[in-house]
Amino acid sequence: MCRLFWCHNGSVQYVQHESWLDMLDQTRHLVDGRGMLVDEDILETVAILRTIGVNTVSSCGGHLDRGYGPYVWFEAKDAAADRARYAEYQRAAKSDTPTDAVREVGRKISRDEIAEKRKLFPYLEEFYATRNSRFANRLLIENHGFAGTMLHCQGAMLVGVMGLEPLEVRRRLLKAHQREMRDFTEFLKVKVLTK
Length: 195
Description:
By secondary structure, the protein is of the alpha+beta class. Helix content is 47%, strand content 16%. It has one domain. It contains six helices and six strands. The strands form two sheets. The protein has a four-stranded antiparallel beta sheet. A two-stranded antiparallel sheet has the order 1-2. A hairpin with a 2-residue loop joins strand 1 and strand 2.
């Protein structure tokens, strides 16, 4: 098997060449629900998260003119089908009171989403164990109910078009958030891909 290396913090790191390049190539061709390809700025983050088994569904490298970022949206593998089944059961019940079937699907969605989030907990804990990051720059896992989960920086809402901060402050925040996500990505690459 070929090996690929890159420098990280002044040391040479070796990774399994084919598997990482394959994952990058697969990720490069992913399309989200809006028909968008993965932003180049977040490509390696999405690829390494997928390598550790996180089911990513959408992402953004970060923009000042729309939304905010960077972020990676993820959900349990069966989430879309489970949400459709949940809605179907609710319609069939024709009542505001959930039936046992509706409650059971809801519990399954919650259990699966928690399991998906837990994949990231040990990595984030280790990443921040010795890292001194500003509060607004720290990555967090934000639950969006049945819609899924987002990995993004704590202060992400300050960056986007709705942010009340002046443009220059938003620009600095975005750069800091992109750096935080890149550093986490490099941490994961070293942790997961190196021997």
